[in-house]
Amino acid sequence: MSLQAILYTPSTTRPTLQILDQLKLPHESVYVPIHTCEDAYDAIKRMVVRGAPAIAIVAALALAVELSSASSYGETAEAARKYVHERLDYLMQSRPTAVNLADAAGKLKVVVDAEAEDESAEMVVGRYVRAAEKMLGDDVKDNENIGRFGAEWILGNAKVGEEGRVAVLTHCNTGSLATAGYGTALGIIRSLHSGSNLTHAYCTETRPYNQGSRLTAYELVHDKIPATLITDSMASSLMNLKSVAAVIVGADRVAANGDTANKIGTYQLAIVAKYHGVKFVVAAPTASIDMKTASGKDIVIEHRSGKEVTHVETVVTAARGINVYNPSFDVTPKDLIDAIVTEKGVVVKNAGGDFDLSRLFWGVQR
Ligand code: MRU
């Protein structure tokens, strides 16, 4: 059975949404119901659900569920449109760095704003629900394409070992738990494995929240992918002493120039990869690319509670009274990135050293 972070049951009258409580993994698999936008906001903020694509889809579907059980959106089409806009704006405040939620909200607003003659509030709501539901299925398809394109690119461009097989290193969690299914960077690892092209996957612990040891390791064991966990501080030693063809990471926001915000620790992995001649690959759907943000210096980085660093659950692991610096993400400059793999294809730098990401959006209004 494949892992599912998001369980959504469509219904014309009462759709339901449940999410896997990622705070309890890997010890317990418990699903919690999401009835309202407030439930989703709280779950995203507390990281019950996390990962850029999963955050966006849970938020979009939470509003779909809320709309089905409330008449609070009013009686006219105009009132319903206003309600959808306000609720999406509220959800967008939950976490600042990943752009996927803002991207989804923007697309959903366009859907409800399309006017039909004599439209009722219910027709506007119906259009919203169908569009939100479509995002769930589309994400899995996009990830499968990212997996295929990324595996092909690595096998064609990285140092490939005997019998066309590679070992790779990944950071944070970008798999089924961070998306609607299959995953982005972990999707590439799944694709390499299913094509018998993977010798080994290494995953970092990903302090302080341990997405790697708790979630990625859980997915790798679940899928029986040959894998080894390392602490974050072992990455340079690993790349020095073992054969690693590529570091593959996800993204929370890729700026127009290719600078990429991702889980804290990504930047240092990119520096280490460059030093050791290891390819550094960013895997992200085009929904993670923010053409309105020129470069990484304009990306807002979320800072989280120092307790994530001083505690493991309720156990104190640091000297009481110490100050803590806890940015949840960092920005990897484009110069350290070899390829950006999207569902539409792989983008590499041109002769001038720039990523031309705009070509991914030709014909698409953003
Ligand atoms: O704080 P998180 O766990 O939401 O951070 C997740 C990451 O940084 C992922 O790499 C990113 O969202 C891509 S998930 C496909």
From TrEMBL:
<dbReference type="GO" id="GO:0046523">
    <property type="term" value="F:S-methyl-5-thioribose-1-phosphate isomerase activity"/>
</dbReference>
<comment type="similarity">
    <text>Belongs to the eIF-2B alpha/beta/delta subunits family. MtnA subfamily.</text>
</comment>
<keyword id="KW-0486">Methionine biosynthesis</keyword>
<dbReference type="Pfam" id="PF01008">
    <property type="entry name" value="IF-2B"/>
</dbReference>
<dbReference type="InterPro" id="IPR037171">
    <property type="entry name" value="NagB/RpiA_transferase-like"/>
</dbReference>
<keyword id="KW-0963">Cytoplasm</keyword>
<protein>
    <recommendedName>
        <fullName>Methylthioribose-1-phosphate isomerase</fullName>
        <ecNumber>5.3.1.23</ecNumber>
    </recommendedName>
</protein>
<keyword id="KW-0413">Isomerase</keyword>
<dbReference type="InterPro" id="IPR000649">
    <property type="entry name" value="IF-2B-related"/>
</dbReference>
<feature type="active site" description="Proton donor">
    <location>
        <position position="252"/>
    </location>
</feature>
<dbReference type="InterPro" id="IPR011559">
    <property type="entry name" value="Initiation_fac_2B_a/b/d"/>
</dbReference>
<comment type="pathway">
    <text>Amino-acid biosynthesis; L-methionine biosynthesis via salvage pathway; L-methionine from S-methyl-5-thio-alpha-D-ribose 1-phosphate: step 1/6.</text>
</comment>
<dbReference type="GO" id="GO:0019509">
    <property type="term" value="P:L-methionine salvage from methylthioadenosine"/>
</dbReference>
<dbReference type="GO" id="GO:0005737">
    <property type="term" value="C:cytoplasm"/>
</dbReference>
<keyword id="KW-0396">Initiation factor</keyword>
<keyword id="KW-0028">Amino-acid biosynthesis</keyword>
<dbReference type="GO" id="GO:0005634">
    <property type="term" value="C:nucleus"/>
</dbReference>
<dbReference type="InterPro" id="IPR005251">
    <property type="entry name" value="IF-M1Pi"/>
</dbReference>
<dbReference type="InterPro" id="IPR027363">
    <property type="entry name" value="M1Pi_N"/>
</dbReference>
<feature type="site" description="Transition state stabilizer">
    <location>
        <position position="172"/>
    </location>
</feature>
<keyword id="KW-0539">Nucleus</keyword>
<comment type="function">
    <text>Catalyzes the interconversion of methylthioribose-1-phosphate (MTR-1-P) into methylthioribulose-1-phosphate (MTRu-1-P).</text>
</comment>
<dbReference type="InterPro" id="IPR042529">
    <property type="entry name" value="IF_2B-like_C"/>
</dbReference>
<dbReference type="GO" id="GO:0003743">
    <property type="term" value="F:translation initiation factor activity"/>
</dbReference>
<keyword id="KW-0648">Protein biosynthesis</keyword>
